[in-house]
Every structure is written in structure tokens, then in C-alpha cells.
Amino acid sequence: MESRGIGMRKKICILLCVILLLGSITACTSQQEESNQVDEGNEYAIYYGEEYYPISYNFVMECILDGETEEDIPEEFPYPAGKRHFGDGIEIKTFIVDDERGKGEVIYHISATKDTKTIREVGIGDALKALQEAYGIDLIYENDWIYNPEDSGPMFNQVYIFAPEDGTTNYIAFFLMDEKIVMIELGEGFDYRPGHRGEIFSALGMDGVYKRTGEATALGMDISYCYTNKNGEEEILLNTFAKYTREVDIDEDGIVEVVEDCGVSAANCAVYDLVDGQIARIDINEAAGSLWSSFMGDMANAKPEYRTCFETGFKDEDGTEGIEVYRVIDNKLIYVCPFSNDVLMK
């Protein structure tokens, strides 16, 4: 009788094991079927091994990194509650949804360091050349992101961003160390989308220039004029600290100069120009011996022919004050006339 009880218990245990095994197979099969579905036309997606994960608010997934560690992300207005999923070399952040889209999770951020490739077949360990060939001119070299040893993630010394003008705020960031991809990050940028160059223009004899403004300092804003070289890397054409800068062809020679308001203790201007193939700078106060200077392009009532000139202030030994007008041509200061009503529109 006792042996029959033991045998029965063995059969029950075997049956339970079979049920659990079938459930596991069903779950894996369900996940595999789900992974075979893709968000057609979505560039912002990766394959982690064989599994497909897109950045999309409309691609609802029931299973994210099945069997791996996860933690809850509390709701924080205006964003709903979500989850943070951790796998081997990958982290995925999601929002929880239960509406007309379905019930499950949508992905808004992915960071991966292994077994990952993008839709364009670029993955961890690939070379910079392969990345540039796959993404071409849509790839932007991002020099604002600098490795911080206190941050989690691999060491890197280059970052490239894919974020073309496509009506979204999504992006893909490729982190490289010695021209090899060590991490891929995809995300919904929300109110910040990396890799945005702003307006592209010509300046200082170079086409494809864009202006990048950094932090404010005691000397003014940290302003850089940049361009992308043939390797897709960002190069700095000019870096300066100023209250503001503007791009103007002040001597009408076909080369756009950079005029800066660089006064700290007194109003002052400077001009950067391309002279004999080199970028040269002239300080207006220093060159004119003036107490102050101001660019007349900001003077709404100045006659058009004077709006590329500078007004400069002087004080004689007897205390008499005067204002004179100068022009800059090829990095040289040229006297024009005294400042008077003749300079202004009637």
C-alpha cells in the first residue's frame, strides 16, 4: 500500500514537471512568434540575438527579456508607469499600456553592449567604417558626450548619432572605443534629441558650417563653429567666448566673416576673417585705440551702406568725446568718417 502511494506521488510529480515544461515551451514559442513580427519601416529598432525590440509607442509587447531581472518605474507626470528590464548586456525601459493599442509594454529606451545589431545590420564590435557606410551623411559626430568613469557602461572615445529630420524625436547613438562599436543606445528623445546641428551655412571660407553654443562663462557664451570632415567627424573651425556672434560678409568679398561682441568691462567687437588661407582676428578697440566699439548691423536707423561698419568711441585729453566710423577689410581697420546724422536715415 505504501509503495503504491509512493508510486502515485512519483506520477503526480512527473505530470507536474510535464505541465511546467509545456508551459515554458508555450511561453518561449509565444515570445518567438512575437519576435517574428516587426514594425515595418522603423529605423529605431534592434535585434538582440534573434529577438526584435523597437522604439515605438504603437508596438505593444507582452514579453520583454523573458526570464530576466526587472524593476518597476513609478508613474511620474506626464509619463505613465513603466518597467526597467535587465538582460545580459542589455537594458530596456518601457511604459505599461492597457488601451486600444493592446495590453503590455511599449519601449522608449534601449542600451546594449553585446549581441545587438540595428536594422541596417550594424552591431556591437563593428568598425567605424562599417557604421559610416551603413548610415552615410545621416550620421552626426557628437562631441558633447564625454566618457565619465562614474557612469555605468563601457569606456568610449567617440559617439555618432543617427537622428535625421524624419518627424520623430527618436535617435540611435553609437559609442565607439578606438573605432569599434562598444555600445548602442536607442531612445525617444522627448524634449531633447541629440545630434541636432542646427542651421548649416558657409563661413570663413568653409561650406557646411554650423554653430554650437555651450555654457555661459565670465567671458561670455562658449561658441564654436563646426563642420564635419570626410570621415564624418566633427571638426571645430573656430571657438570663441562672446556675448553673441553673427555671420556677415562685412567687406563684400564673398567670404562670410564672424563678428563677435566680446566686451567684458567695456563694449568691444572683434572680427574673424579668412586671410591668405588662415583665420585671422582683429580686435576693434585695440586696433582703433577706442574706449568702446559696437557693430552697426544692429543699428536699425543706420543707412544700409554703414550696417557692416563699426562705431567707436573716443575721449580726448581735454575730455571731449567723439564717435568715429570704421570698416574692416581683410583684417585691416579702415577709417570711414565721423559719426553724424549723415550716417543715419532721415
What does this structure look like?
The chain is mainly beta and 346 residues long. It folds into two domains: 45-188; 201-343, no CATH class. It has helices at 2-35, 128-135, 284-288; strands at 45-48, 51-54, 69-73, 82-87, 90-99, 102-112, 116-118, 139-141, 158-162, 170-177, 180-188, 201-203, 206-217, 220-228, 234-242, 244-248, 257-261, 269-275, 278-283, 292-295, 310-315, 321-329, 332-338. The strands form five sheets. An eight-stranded antiparallel β-sheet has the order 3-4-5-6-11-10-9-8, covered by helices on one side. A hairpin with a 2-residue loop joins strand 1 and strand 2 (51-54). The radius of gyration is 31 Å and the shape is elongated. The model is unreliable at 1-36 (pLDDT under 50).
